[in-house]
Design brief:
The chain has 162 residues and is an all-beta fold. Strands 3-2-11-8-13-6 form a six-stranded mixed beta sheet, with no helix packed on it. A five-stranded mixed beta sheet has the order 1-10-9-12-7, with no helix packed on it. Strands 4-5 form a two-stranded antiparallel sheet.
Length: 162
């Protein structure tokens, strides 16, 4: 089973102050056969721009859409058996650690500073009744997550958010 503990959201340090950074995230998505996968992707369209009177900062605005923000606390030893994300959603771990396993066997562990995009809607159950993903907590602390649910149709292609 593939496994990764590589940080999901690492800000690449701009070299000269003019090099655009990249922020990585794990994209959980379903292919045309209904199998979920996790792909390491990058947000890479940052522009250096001031906000109000503040000094310039790197911004990568995403398409505007209706959203719902949900804060979730996953208890110690919690396991969510096979399920799909309720909507395409950004998942930001605030504290604790959490893992996600996709149908292809990839397991990714995440914690504060990591970023995940859950977009495994329309997965199709396989012969082992796996559909979407499994997830659970790691260690002796609850995992506190913030999700930003996007009210959009899923796109069955990894890395389409850039």
């Amino acid at each position: 089973m593939p496994e990764s503990t590589q940080p999901a959201s690492v800000l690449a340090q701009p070299g000269s102050g003019h090099d655009s950074p990249k922020v990585t995230y794990w994209h959980l998505w379903s292919d045309k056969h209904g199998v979920s996968h996790q792909t390491h992707c990058e947000l890479d369209r940052f522009e250096l721009k001031g906000v109000g009177n503040a000094a310039p900062q790197w911004n990568d605005p995403q398409p505007r859409t209706d959203t719902t923000v949900v804060f979730t606390v996953l208890p110690v030893d919690w396991v969510g058996e096979w399920h799909e994300n309720p909507a395409p959603q950004w998942i930001v771990p605030i504290s604790g650690r959490w893992w996600v396993e996709s149908m292809d066997g990839t397991r990714v562990e995440m914690g504060p500073g990591d970023l995940s995009l859950g977009e495994d809607q329309r997965s199709i159950a396989d012969g082992e009744k796996r559909k979407g993903h499994r997830s659970g907590t790691i260690g002796d602390q609850p995992a506190v997550l913030m999700t930003v649910q996007l009210h959009v149709e899923p796109v069955h292609r990894p890395g389409h958010f850039r």
